[in-house]
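Moderator note: this is an archived Q&A kept for reference. The question asked for a predicted structure of one protein chain; the sequence and the answer are reproduced below.
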Amino acid sequence: MIEQLITILGSELDLNPTEVADLLWLTLERQKRIQTQPSPLTPSPDTKTQTPSPPPIQQPIEIPSSPTINHPPPAITPSTINIYAATQTRTTRTPESDDIPLSVPDARSLREPLDFIRALKPLLRNVPSSTEQVIDESATVDWIAQTDLWIPQLQPALEPWLELALVIDESESMILWRHAVDELEQTLKHYGMFRDVRVWGMGRDQANQIYLRSQTGSHSAKELIDPQNRRLIILVSDTTDELWRDAQILSILAEWTASNPVVILQMLPAWMWSRTALGVATPAQFRSSGISLLNPHLRVEVNRLAKRRRLAQGINIPVITLEPERARVWSQMLTGQGEAQTPGYVLRPDLLAASRRAKSAQTPTAQERVSHFTLNASPLAQRLAGLLAAAPIITMPVVRLIQDSMLEESQQIQVAEVFLGGLLQPVTEITPETNPEQVQYEFIDGVREELLKLVPVPDSEQVLDQVSRDLAKKLGKTLREFVAWLRNPDQIEDEAIGAIVKPFARVTQDILQHLGYEVAAEGEETVPGSEVEELRLDTYTFDVVFIDTDDSESADSVVEKLNQFSFQTVTVNRQGEIINTETKTAHYFTEDLGDGISLDMVYIPGGTFLMGTEDEEIERLCEKYDFDFVKRERPQHRVTVLPFFMGKYPITQGQWKAVANMTHLKVERDLKPEPANFKADLPNSSFAKQTLDFSFKQEAGGESPSRWDRPIERVSWYDAIEFCQRLSQLTGQKYRLPTETEWEYACRAVSDDVNKNFSYPPFHFGETLTDKLANYRASSIYTEEPKGEYRGQTTAVGRFPPNVFGLYDMHGNVYEWCEDDYHKNYENAPTDGSAWLSSNINTTKILRGGSWDDYPNYCRCAYRVYLDIGSKNYRIGLRVVRVTQPNWID
């Protein structure tokens, strides 16, 4: 029997097995409540001798249950309001000329439908119907026994307590949420929680009048008013359109809330609400009054300032999201369960009117747009924007392609941050009928170039390669044929294909030029451009220690006077299994930065090593990852490095703030004391998960880390130089950034006889990385190790094992600036460990080590990446070096 039911439900209603199971669960829950849970705010089933009379006013026009909105009423022109703040005029193009035939499956926006439905469980109750009656068997039997008259006795039928009006905002920005809204609508239909589910569209016409429409045509907002107070209105919106600052919407909400429970289902997360039209309303917490479920009767709690200014009087609107927990608390509040309270806003006409955006006399520059975006957007959104900057075409399928291949942990909310961040504009007009898959976007002039400065070049190359391959595949061409088209689009004979490829080629050339490539003629290779004249300059002079053995102590004895610390190192195999552990010691001294903040500097002995990667390994990596950027690590060459001191850890937020606040030591520029993106403290449980065993906890002090133990990030190369200069003035010693050679030497922690043709492992831990060894994108594997935890943020320094030199966090956590300018390979590179500079003072600079957000390949000892000298990024920090001088030990 049950198998037949599942088969029928699956075939007739097009339900998958999970949805069938959910439906059966919901049906059982409803049956449990028929006799046991009448609504406290509606008539009790005990009053069955009285049949409620029909409502005295006309009900809304009957339309099929849960209609699907698929066309506008003929007399209404959909809104074309531009939601992109201070954007430039769109380029005029036709949809046919620029549609790109890419298709990437979309992920579910409502990831756990059953969890969301369960969150609404308090609303799942049955009440006596005002229109339908059923036989009361018990009363009928008693009546016949007493009167001998066979007349059935009736009672009101039980029906779901509420019906639902799902009002969907049709503003332009809501195209980003089309999939999520469709999934929400289908979920609410399938699970049958409400007596009826009807869908309405709301927007503004060309006359800026707010319209309400259904499948049958346009309607008055008054049609949603229910005098029985049993129609729940859920307004689905991101509240970014100007209609939410219009007096009309307040009038409509005032009418609805007087007779209906009303809630806004906000598509954006709570931390973004203040950036929408809700930002000018009064934040509030709402509790049930126990008298009525209507919004005006809710108990309102606001902060003291709002009370003093009398801002608690207005239209009460609770706000929820698709997060099950927020929906659960709101439904408990609505039904008066306990002291549940839910967030929302009190809307006031005076505040909304005052918030009307004035047209700015000056259009913000591209740099200002990007600066504003990076200050307000989440790290994942910043990363996504940077990756999109390397995509010649920008559509929702392209966005998903990038998310799936390079940013798996990102969700639709990060997409919204980017698309609503004032960086992009649609190429063509958007209406409620526009297919979101076919909308093409473009960056506002200059924004793409600014974003590309913030993204490591290999990431940009990977995006460009990925999108090119996908488009070539859709066009039925090999990558070689497609690249030939890009070099010479005029050779394309098919006009339809030419209309697609030509704009793609134009943008691709711009991107390549910005990445440092010369746009080659047909038949030539496209190689990194080197318009910068390469000159080997020595900026810093290294002081060599000369020791007279008759009058002075030996160098070894001087080193022995330094403090020592012990630590444990580990070596892993290709499976990430620890195959060896050793206890090591290192020498160090401590700089006092004041207020209990100190800086440990570890002695790095001089030596000779092979810098770079051997040719065989480079070819293997090129084949494995299908990228050529590892060729920057050749040729492998012998380098001799003098002794120096290096920071035991990357510079922490606490150390940075201590030095940044020393404004009396300013040399060239101001430093922000707290520029970091990650400011939250780390819980003790997170600390415990990051370590291998107690020995490493001991090194970290055994205490729960705070935000000040995180590495500093979002600092430019200029900022890093200023930090070193101030540190030099404070201590009277020479502090600077490490040279690229010093950094790789210190990371590998080797000093071997290179004549033995020794082959170094890719990491100082051995053949691979794991999440127990470093903070990186451990959800991606390098060799044969198991997938690990991707933490998605920086971690406190010193929480993972060090290398043989006693240096921590050399792999992952944050990239570290180096002194050197970028050169496309090591040909003619210095062999004495000095910085390799060029004559261009505005060149790009080298970074090393990878970050919390990078794949393991980018965290190798030899991996090189470069960025613009002024770039600031939530993945970029620094580590300092102290030069050895005759008085190098105090």
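Archived answer notes: The chain has a mean pLDDT of 79.
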